[in-house]
Design goal:
Elements lengths: L1 E5 L7 H9 L2 E4 L13 E5 L4 E5 L2 E2 L11 E2 L4 H11 L5 H12 L6 H15 L5 E4 L11 H11 L4 E5 L8 H6 L3 E7 L17 H7 L2 H7 L3 E3 L1
Parallel strand pairs: 1-2, 1-8, 2-7, 8-9
Antiparallel strand pairs: 3-4, 5-6, 9-10
Length: about 230
Amino acid sequence: MKLAIMQPYFFPYIGYWQLISAVDTFVIYDDVNFIKQGWINRNNIIGNDSDQLISLQLIGASSFKLINSVMVGNKSPKILKTIEQTYKKSPYFEEVFPLIQEVLQNKEENLAQFLTLSIKKICAYLDIKTNILVSSELQKNNDLKGQSKILNICDVLHAKQYINAIGGQELYQKETFSQQNIELLFIKNKAIDYQQFQSPFRPNLSIIDVLMFNDKEQVKRYLIEFELI
């Protein structure tokens, strides 16, 4: 079984969805510390001259709290208005904007649960069939940290292959995983380029941008634009 584990992010970039689609089971890592100024509650969309940041309002956010203990504030009106104004002339606005509305108007107030629902909705839209679990619901050893905790989750779920984002090369060692009979691989995203209005292409924006400028079948083709190393 192929497994990946990642914190939940707010409308993450295409690489996140490539990772989900590359595995059999994807675990949303909700019982680790919230990262301030990270991508858990914010992301970039296209702007006039530069990237434009959209941020989910939070209540009680702190790097001393777990992601699943943070609450969402008033999440919908301002972000929706910004997205609508930015993308209303994009080719797939009429198809995609209702999906974004459905995500942002969800009544869930817990940040981790809200993000989990949003990830599942976009997976459903893109026909991603990966099994999605939540780490806080797993029977595991919560006293462990870092690589040891990841290995414990792999053991609990009987994973034979663990795939991580390329940035994890400094955190995880293939030899250590191999000792547990688990193959460790890293996903390396290939360059993706598409037309964004008349602007020079700006990569690695939120999945919102990808969906607004590409039809669903093209986005699904982007999902396999990676290699495992």
